[in-house]
Design goal:
Oligomer: single chain
Number of strands: 17
Number of domains: 2
Strand content: 15-25%
CATH class of the largest domain: Alpha Beta
Radius of gyration: 23 Å
Length: 318
């Protein structure tokens, strides 16, 4: 199996429990994290070590020298989920039964690196997982099985991804058994309705207050746990040369009723911090200044003198 992110863990554990023939885990090398830049072992690598399953961590899974390592293992099938590298045609040609992948959407919707976040960002009410055949084209293979689930109104991408990982694990096991017995079927993807889920960037988290309150609420949910939604605020009485304060937004509530231009602070007292949107308004429930701990709206307002009439977002820097 090839996997790195936590999305892959339930499938890996299910395979390890159901099959005595799991040869190895191929995963990305640990990367320095945090202020101390310490190497952190991924959850899936730690679980593989506990189960005494060999862990391979190539920098480049498609490098000729690593392809030789895979050939010596003589695998029948490659299984991937949240691995983090594109597999070459040479690698996919090694196992006699090819490869399958667990993808975090109902394909052909949201092909790409961030299907869970993009589904929430776009306001979808349903999503799921798809087990597909691996091909050199990203997420374009035939569909072997699909699992579906509703997206909850306040669910974050991290919470939904955890549910999807659990939903997909038994589908992966069933697909492996069906491929081994030759009883599986594949359905082609409809190329006419393909949508994309490009990799998230830090700037994707910037809140556009001209959007509707629901769209802003969706963005805040979609950007968790990374890169996090954010906005800016220029504090009253500060020099014009001082850059606006960056504010990370953890939790919101969309309101149908608003008033005022986008980014205008409408209420700022007790636990009510409400900002006008392009349509409706957004109640900010949990916020954070970088380097500080997340705070409720009431805690934030005790520490920072935000008042009605202030502006947040890009308009505050004009």
């Amino acid at each position: 199996m090839l996997g790195t992110g936590d999305f892959a863990v339930p499938s890996f554990l299910a395979l390890a429990e159901s099959s005595p023939h799991l040869l190895a885990l191929i995963t990305q090398p640990g990367r320095p994290q945090g202020r101390k830049q310490e190497i952190v072992v991924s959850q899936i690598a730690a679980r593989a070590s506990e189960l005494q399953i060999p862990v391979l961590q190539p920098e480049n899974v498609n490098a000729p020298e690593f392809l030789d390592v895979v050939r010596k293992l003589e695998p029948d099938l490659l299984i991937t989920a949240a691995y983090g590298q594109i597999l070459s045609a040479d690698l996919l040609s090694i196992p006699r039964l090819g490869g399958i992948n667990l993808h975090g959407s109902i394909l052909p919707a949201y092909r790409g690196a961030s299907p869970v976040a993009r589904a929430i960002q776009h306001g979808d009410q349903e999503t799921g997982v798809t087990v597909i055949r691996m091909t050199p084209r990203i997420d374009a293979g035939g569909m072997i099985s699909i699992g579906r689930t509703e997206i909850q109104p306040n669910e974050t991408a991290g919470e939904l991804e955890e549910r999807l990982a659990a939903l997909g694990a038994p589908l992966v096991v069933d697909a492996v058994e069906a491929i081994a017995s030759g009883t599986y079927t594949e359905l082609p993807q409809d190329r006419r309705i393909v949508t994309r889920a490009p990799k998230l960037k830090k700037e994707d988290g910037q809140i556009d207050w001209s959007r509707s309150s629901q769209a802003i609420h969706n963005l805040v949910r979609a950007m968790q746990p990374w890169p996090m939604a954010f906005t800016t605020w220029r504090r009253a009485g500060r020099p014009e040369t001082e850059p606006p304060l960056r504010v990370i937004v953890h939790q919101t509530e969309p309101l149908e009723q608003g008033g005022g231009s986008p980014g205008l602070v409408l209420e700022a007292f007790a636990d009510r911090l409400i900002v006008a949107a392009g349509q409706g308004a957004v109640r900010l429930l949990k916020l954070q200044i970088p380097g500080k701990k997340p705070a409720s709206a009431s805690e934030f307002l005790r520490g920072y003198r935000l008042v009605p009439g202030d502006r947040i977002g890009p308009l505050s820097t004009d």
